[in-house]
Known about the structure:
This protein is of the alpha+beta class. The protein has 17 helices and 22 strands.
Amino acid sequence: MSNTFQVDLRGIVDLLSHHLYASPRVYVRELLQNAVDAITAVGPDHAGRVEITTGEALRITDNGIGLTEAQVHELLATIGRSSKRDELGFARHEFLGQFGIGLLSCFLVADEIRVHTRREGATPVLWTGYSDGRYDVRPGDEREPGTTVTLLPRRGSEHYLTSATVVELAGLYGSLLPVEVTADGHQVTTGTVPWALPASERNTYAESMLGFRPFDVIDLNVPGAGLTGAAFVLPTPVNPATRGGHRVYLKRMLLSENVEGLLPDWAFFARCVVDSTELRPTASREALYDDGMLAETRDAIADQLRGWLVRLATTDPRRLAQFLQIHHLGVKALALHDDEMLRLVEQWYPMQTNMGELTLAEFRARYGVLRYAATADEFRQLAAVAGAQDVGLINGGYVYDADLIQRLAAVDPEVHAERLDPTDLTTRFTAVDAETELRLRPFLSAAQRRLDRLGCEVVVRSFDPAGLPALYLVSRAAAFHDEFTASRDQADDLWGGVLDALSSTVPNDRPQLVLNHRNPLIRRVAALGDAELAALAVESLYGQALLLGHHPIRPADAALLTTSFLGLLDRAVPGGNGEESR
Ligand SMILES: Nc1ncnc2c1ncn2[C@@H]1O[C@H](COP(=O)(O)OP(=O)(O)OP(=O)(O)O)[C@@H](O)[C@H]1O
């Protein structure tokens, strides 16, 4: 014995209202959709009209194909039955509907639905359905071919059927529909799609619908998906992690204002408004069905956005620079994962270097190796000295920059990157000749004695620029060592013990104060007969070099800065040595 499933309508309505549709508001969309489909079914030359009125009840009338009594029994009384599928059960291309459940959404706001309909050449029929699952069919009053659906509001749902709400919802879902729609006398359909408007009106559209005045508007066209539309480029920075939704229409009916998955992740800077005849909705009609077609469409749109970027680069680099200025954080964040964005950054994003602003591509063409300082402090410390020796240096200290340089070198075997360590520079410093070295020895050992307690080593080298008297250089190992000893001092006994055991493995090359023998002041200081004055001078040079390189100032350094400054002042101002006038 074989039986058929029984369906409890109340269960189905609950399922629809709470789980399938985001809000009961969608009933307006489903009604509009049925009216448009009925008009489409008449034929391409039929001048379709849809009229919605509100009041005690909501009425929506179309001059579409209508239904015969037999069709009413077959289509309206069977959930899941649709006239919009072919014999094999596939959705027919020209229609919006396909599932055979849309009319049920009206039960989200109404307890009773009446469908008054007439097919050309047949008699009028009145079908009445109730939310408890009953329906009846009677002969209807005389009427033109077409259909009128009437909803009697459910108690508590009246607000979904007020004039204001219905006019708003009909406009939201139906403004681009290819048939004439009015709601309580208001013209709902606008006639033109926004992306076909002249440039100034597109901007106004974006301002009112998307909430921003676009930086630029890019036309989109994907014939394979029957897709036309526009991408509006955001004029202000956005966090690329916040997925912005797109306004998507399917066969001119709004799917959602917040569709995801239409663009690849890297295109976070654009909001699209598109219409497609081929992309498919999910059953809730609030999202796009994620299939091969959507993937191909995404790729095609990505190509068009990339094309826009490339065009900007060749025809209007100034605007591309503006674009990157707005969206650089997002572009750079994505470039850490996306090779195309990485190339964009390489070619077009100017980074700070000691030779002015240069793109990584320009820098590489000029200097071969992408030599960079990993922090802004290191960069400041090294930029001038490196520049004077014609060593190009990139400031990798801005967010993502050092990582991007490293990644570029990782993905492209032709690119070489090198982090410049401050002590690497000493190899470019020329040692002074043996005779001078010998002459300077007493001065140097006196200077070393003064700086020993600060853990700093004093050396003399010749380097450019000659105007720079002294440079404080910390190697990575030395910086680590400093941090290590600082933590050792703060740690409790247990951790102190562990750190002590480790300390033997920590290299302890000391930071260096490099005095520049090319600098006239340094020569004069080194030649001073007055040992006390020379020591004061070395201490101030040490303090000044620390400040110049933005190094942390420890309490001992601060004390030294004060005493050396006051000491020098004392020597400079006449009347010292107890000779003050009384
Ligand atoms: N205004 C109308 N004019 C003519 N036929 C209609 C009208 N409204 C509904 N119908 C008929 O009733 C059937 C069921 O409608 P329903 O809205 O439930 O499903 P659908 O539109 O086929 O699919 P979907 O669930 O995707 O909307 C339709 O296939 C159509 O044949």
